[in-house]
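FAQ: What does the model actually see?

It sees only this:
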Amino acid sequence: MRIIRHPKKKSLKGSVVALGTFDGVHRGHQVILQQAVKQAKKDKTASIAITFDPHPQLLISPERGLKLLTTLTEREKLFCRYGIDGVVVIRFNKRLQALAKEDFVKKYLVEKIGASHVFVGFDYAFGKSRAGDVSQLKKLGKKHGFAVTVVRAVSADKHVIKSKVIRELLSQGKFNQAVQLLGHAYQIEGVVVRGSGRGKPLGFPTANLRVANNKLIPAHGVYAGLWGEKKCAVNIGARPTFGAGETAIEVHIPRYKKNLRGQRLNLILTRRLREERQFSDVEKLKRQIAKDIRRL
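And it is asked to produce this:
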């Protein structure tokens, strides 16, 4: 898969495009991507995912403090998983924000890409003040010579699957339900930094992870995870047994003894084992950690 930051004029002419921000690359997004890949194979051309970085809402409504389900790197890996041939990353800035809907279509889908077919979600909006909707995109497609397919909403557990819904579930501690809507495990990547040093004396040394500021961290609790093929326990929380206050991400990899400080870890959280609890003494905490590890 190719990552294309600045495509040359019509260098991808004839490509089938999946268009959206795709934060989370959830089950609804996956249908868009899969349909685009299928169409591209039928047309014997390339499938391209167009995404935006930073997320438009971070610029349009910074006061919301939006937290992302996926960093750009995580998104790109997921695009690859679902068969996309290439990713075009469009930098979202004030100039793009001010671009009228038809100018956006003409500049990016027509002149930059030369798209033959564009796939979007049912609620896709584009252009200045999100003035363009899917019906207008279809009209512009006819005018400029590309087909448009609008993918219907995907629902599960009485929810229309949307990034906003998944963010809410993760923040509420409903991790396992959120993963069902995502359609894949939750990713966290970051750099190992110096921690409090409490894990090693307990017999459970941990690597403390520093992640991107705008990455959504699931609700406090203990999670089962994977680092490559190695199982790990991930504690997200304020360590109330020790009276600490700041949220930390602590990773224990059973039977792994090497120092990971300074390294970048890519973790996959598969399920939530339990909520964060305060223990009356350290021995009870140690017994609980041992139980958690047996459940990995």
